[in-house]
Design brief:
By secondary structure, the protein is of the alpha/beta class. It is built from 18 helices and 12 strands. A hairpin with a 2-residue loop joins β10 and β11. The longest helix has 22 residues.
């Protein structure tokens, strides 16, 4: 990241902290926090049972459910679903396929965009922040799980939009937003497939909850085929649990007590307004397919999976505020992302710079709504990787010098 981008990010994070801190101290939010901590701990502890339950309830709700052991299997399932829709839908231009996408950290995890590029499929990022990064093209890594473009000033964004869309907009937020919105809406009319993540999945109800402020997910889920990719750690028992998590995530992600939209999907589009006879395929999706991704989660320690995805750990991390998204694997997920990489990726990934950038100060835990002990996880992870001989090259050099010369130099 450029120094000016880090400076811009720090200012935005500082303003965000000023909104989050007083809200987090309110009695209502603190009561909600206690409830969500219990929900997340119990859900992760009972994940196997919830996974069995949700497969049954999805089937009852006419939702296609797939289990993906890893990212490669998830990508294969996605392509099978897409190709099936392309072949069966005469309205799709086979030479130029469009997919409408909403923001999803899980899709980033499985390198969804690279998969689409490889198969020459056009992805329409419907979230404004993600769309800006998509138009930016180079150095387009996100810096925050819910605010991916938080490092860019309005002048930066104006330059990106003007260059990519051939416009001459001033550095004023509303005209920029309106130009991007118009462009995205035009492209979305060409799309018959939507793909998204999920904030939470209620296993007992067979329902998926998605949170958004922009209204874009409503468009994505209205496509003929709606694909949802979510980690198995997103499972909770009931939809009431999902709503509680969504409210707490919103408070810690935006400093607002409630998001603009909570979309709940519990099956394809249907109506019973003619003699109470159930008819499928009204306005929304004709097919809903959920891919539940393991990708190492079943092997992860419980504490790594409590996260509700608010990103407040990143906002409060003193190291991240200095180095930005150079902070190791999935840096926009903070130290928790670095710790989780131990399970989601090959072990070598765990010895990247992020693992040793952490100062173990514990500020992330103090600011985490579910009190994830990230610094303790990272300290344990350092010990484990040392024992397994996965030390960084610099550390190996110091060790060998001490052994051979009695000095680290």
């Amino acid at each position: 990241m450029k120094e000016e981008e880090i400076e811009s990010m720090r200012k935005i994070f500082s303003n965000l902290k000023d909104k989050i801190e007083p809200l987090s101290k309110s009695p209502k939010i603190q009561a909600l926090q206690k409830r969500v901590i219990d929900i997340r701990k119990d859900a992760i502890k009972n994940n196997k049972e919830l996974l069995e339950t949700v497969q049954k309830t999805f089937k009852e709700n006419d939702i296609d459910c797939f289990l993906a052991a890893d990212d490669e299997e998830a990508r294969g399932i996605i392509m099978d679903l897409i190709n099936e829709e392309i072949e069966s839908n005469e309205k799709i231009d086979k030479d130029k396929v469009y997919i409408s996408k909403s923001k999803s950290n899980t899709l980033r995890e499985i390198n969804f965009l690279d998969l689409m590029d490889k198969n020459k499929i056009n992805v329409i990022e419907t979230d404004l922040g993600d769309r800006i990064l998509q138009l930016k093209k180079e150095d387009n890594d996100p810096v925050h799980p819910t605010g991916p473009a938080s490092h860019l000033t309005v002048s930066d964004i104006a330059d990106i939009v003007n260059e990519s869309m051939g416009l001459d907009l001033e550095a004023v937020p509303r005209p920029i937003m309106e130009a991007v919105r118009e462009d995205v809406l035009k492209l979305m009319h060409k799309s018959y497939i939507g793909i998204s993540g999920s904030n939470s999945i209620a296993a007992e109800d067979g329902a998926i909850l998605m949170v958004h402020n922009e209204g874009n997910i409503s468009f994505v889920q209205s496509k003929k085929l709606h694909i949802i990719v979510a980690g198995i750690d997103k499972l909770v028992p009931f939809i009431e649990d999902s709503v509680s998590i969504a409210k707490l995530e919103t408070a810690y992600a935006t400093g607002k007590p409630l998001t603009s939209y909570m979309n709940i999907v519990s099956g394809p589009s249907k109506t019973a307004d003619i003699e109470k006879k159930l008819l499928k395929n009204m306005y929304g999706a004709e097919k809903v397919a959920v891919i539940l991704l393991d990708n190492g989660r079943s092997k992860a320690i419980d504490e790594c999976l409590w996260c509700i995805g608010c990103g407040n750990c990143v906002v409060s991390c003193p190291v991240y505020n200095i180095v930005g998204n150079e902070y190791g694997y999935s840096s926009y997920l903070g130290g928790r992302g670095v710790a989780l990489s131990r399970y989601l990726k090959d072990n070598e990934v765990s010895v990247d710079s992020g693992l040793y950038m952490c100062t173990l100060c514990g500020i992330c835990t103090e600011n985490c709504p579910v009190l994830t002990p990230t610094y303790e996880i990272i300290e344990d992870l350092r010990n484990d990787t040392q024992k397994e001989g996965l030390s960084r090259e610099q550390h190996k050099s110091i060790r060998d010098n001490i052994k051979d010369n009695g000095s680290p130099y």
